[in-house]
Design a protein that fits this description.
307 residues, mainly alpha, MetI-like fold, 2 domains, globular
């Protein structure tokens, strides 16, 4: 009787191992197929637009002639808008995540806030555009400016940063907190000197994911009035006279790389499609550069913690 039960148990274990291995193989195949399709699309985009990626393409304004058109105003506008987005979203998102995870009491109010933050991460981006149109453009009178666009995209990625920060803090074992308290550290000292350094790598990953989403968004910025054709740059943030810093560029009109690509794709001439492919390749490299910086910083932080 015992031998029969052991035989049945071994059969069930072998069957579960077979199912587990089959699931792993199917998952690996799906991942490989998805990655190959993505690489094929990126390669096709790069091949189509590589002939237009020249120094003049980066230093020229958009033009009605495809051979003279460039992305100067688009990549400058994208860089400035992403700078404003990161300036507002990153500190506010990390601070909110730290408060909700380390300071907020675990009651119905914090549970309600957590549910709403999680749900906001999945809200369509056009909703944020409509919200920004009513609040930033009309209520705060910011107009169709870089500041309004940066705040709009900051709202868009803020839930992602908050959720990622909370998950990173939860991954830190409580023994580290208890050890810091045992050494006489205050709660803020424990968070600043121990919890945040160990969790910053994961937090940085969430920040880059949010910024990568924001850099490709079109609907929210079109809603608040982003231009599809612009042939001038904002004022320089650095001045030759005192106080040497100017914030007039925050009030300037703007355009973004996705909007410039959409403008070119909508034109009937095939030469503009080549320009759009080149702009898409540049946008991909900008996103990969942000991810590369994040990987480097994460490596440096983790190496510093180990030493």
């Amino acid at each position: 009787m015992v031998a029969e039960n052991l035989q049945i148990l071994r059969g069930e274990i072998n069957q579960r191992k077979l199912v587990n291995n089959l699931f792993a193989v199917v998952g690996l195949i799906i991942i490989l197929v998805s990655v190959l399709i993505l690489l094929a699309l990126i390669l096709q985009l790069a091949i189509n637009g590589w002939s237009r990626i020249t120094p003049e393409f980066f230093t020229s304004f958009p033009s009605r002639r495809a051979e003279n058109a460039g992305i100067l105003s688009a990549w400058v506008g994208t860089s400035l808008v992403m700078l404003v987005t990161a300036f507002f979203a990153v500190p506010l998102g990390i601070a909110s995540g730290v408060y909700l995870e380390e300071y907020a009491r675990k009651n119905w109010l914090s549970a309600l806030i957590e549910i709403n933050v999680t749900n906001l991460a999945g809200v369509p981006s056009i909703i944020y555009g409509l919200l920004a149109l009513g609040v930033f453009v009309y209520q705060f009178q910011l107009g169709e400016s870089i500041l309004a666009a940066g705040l709009t995209l900051a709202l868009l990625i803020l839930p992602v940063v908050i959720v990622t920060t909370r998950e990173a803090l939860r991954a830190i074992p409580n023994s580290l907190r208890e050890a810091a308290y045992a050494m006489g550290a205050s709660k803020w000292q424990m968070i600043w000197d121990h919890i945040l350094p160990y969790s910053f790598g994961s937090i940085l990953t969430g920040i880059i994911i949010g910024l990568s989403r924001a850099i490709g968004e079109t609907a929210p910025v079109i809603t608040i009035g982003a231009l599809t054709f612009i042939a001038f740059l904002p004022d320089s943030p650095i001045k030759s006279e005192f106080p040497f810093i100017s914030f007039e560029w925050l009030k300037a009109p703007f355009t973004l790389m996705p909007i410039q690509m959409f403008n070119w794709v909508s034109r009937p001439e095939p030469e503009f499609e080549v320009n759009a492919a080149a702009a898409g390749t540049v946008l991909l490299f900008m996103t990969l550069a942000m991810n590369g910086i994040a990987i480097f910083l994460r490596y440096r932080f983790r190496k510093g913690i180990k030493w």
